[in-house]
Write a structure and sequence with these properties.
This protein has about 110 residues and is α+β, with helices and mostly antiparallel strands. It has one domain: 2-Layer Sandwich (hypothetical protein PF0899 fold), CATH 3.30.2320. Helix 1 crosses helix 2.
């Protein structure tokens, strides 16, 4: 389960940011995760409580914002959403491998005290 190492890294980053800001506690963590990132949000949530136990983030909330996959169609010169890694433009049918969003995995924000 690679989600465990992902949440460990996110919590570590959150704790580092909180410490540099002089905060005593992390109250909430918000992550942005692309739908094509291969990460299962439910697995992150499952591991979150165990990873934060005994840290200044214990009891913090975890919010996960899903980022849809967006592709660029060079022929139509527009973006479109899809659930596949390589998709055809819904307007003209041209194949597009130009992924613009959907593989994100980032710490979006923190709530600290």
């Amino acid at each position: 389960m690679h989600e465990l190492s992902i949440i460990q890294s996110a919590v570590s980053q959150a704790l580092d940011h909180a410490q540099r800001a002089g905060a005593k506690r992390v109250l909430g963590i918000r992550l942005r995760i692309g739908t094509l990132s291969g990460v299962v949000p439910e697995a992150l949530e499952f591991a979150f409580e165990a990873v934060t136990a005994g840290t200044p983030a214990e009891g913090a909330s975890l919010a996960v914002d899903s980022v849809p996959a967006r592709f660029w169609c060079a022929k139509c010169r527009r973006e479109f959403e899809s659930v596949n890694l390589v998709s055809d433009c819904p307007a003209c049918g041209s194949p597009s491998g130009d992924l613009r969003a959907g593989r994100e995995l980032e710490l979006a924000s923190l709530e600290i005290d």
